[in-house]
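User: Can you recover a sequence for this backbone? Please restate the input before giving your answer.

Assistant: Of course. Working from this structure:
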């Protein structure tokens, strides 16, 4: 079977991809029917970003065999050891967590701060289920794709990948906050970015250390 046909077949049969699409559709439904503000939406996608980081931390810690080609620690080439794996996982957790802590402070200090009680009340009852749906999606995706993502991975690529995974999502948020426009269009574009990066992620993981190394 040709590579293009095999890729299309994999996409059609990828249950984790369709669950991701479903999660975004449910979020769109909640957002449009409950007249969410931009900051309501940002809370949902902030939580999704945190979830992505948690599962990437787990993915790094559970590596059994990995490459460190092109990866440096303290400006020295890293060795593929247990210490390197743990150091990388916890450094990622700290750096990624610090980024999201700053992001959370921005959300709390913004327009939502005046409506935090609303978010914790009527709005929160929709924001939390949407976030939980994304958690279930990424939980399922991790275990569903793990047997397929079997190639030897480059730990440097795994460490930096989540940033590339969430940049399109938050770029769409920034664009919408500045230029405005249709909420449905914005959420549709965010969903498209989510789907594309999901496909890219698992194509890279299945190719293993053939993937480009980010340093």
């Amino acid at each position: 079977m040709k590579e293009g046909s095999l890729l299309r077949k994999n996409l059609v049969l990828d249950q984790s991809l369709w669950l991701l699409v479903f999660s975004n559709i449910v979020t769109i439904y909640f957002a449009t029917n409950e007249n969410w503000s931009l900051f309501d939406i940002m809370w949902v996608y902030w939580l999704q970003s945190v979830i992505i980081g948690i599962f990437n931390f787990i993915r790094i810690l559970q590596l059994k065999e990995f490459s460190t080609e092109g990866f440096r620690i303290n400006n020295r080439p890293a060795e593929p050891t247990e210490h390197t794996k743990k150091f990388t996982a916890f450094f990622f957790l700290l750096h990624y967590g610090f980024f999201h802590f700053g992001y959370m402070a921005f959300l709390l200090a913004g327009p939502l701060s005046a409506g935090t009680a609303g978010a914790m009340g009527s709005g929160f009852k929709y924001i939390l289920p949407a976030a939980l749906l994304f958690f279930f999606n990424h939980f399922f995706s991790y275990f569903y794709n793990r047997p397929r993502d079997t190639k030897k991975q480059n730990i440097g690529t795994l460490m930096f990948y989540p940033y590339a995974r969430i940049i399109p999502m938050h770029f769409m948020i920034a664009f919408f906050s500045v230029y405005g426009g249709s909420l449905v269009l914005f959420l549709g574009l965010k969903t498209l970015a989510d789907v594309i990066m999901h496909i890219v992620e698992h194509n890279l993981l299945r190719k293993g250390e053939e993937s480009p190394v980010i340093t």
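That completes the design. The CA atoms of residues 108 and 116 lie 8 Å apart.
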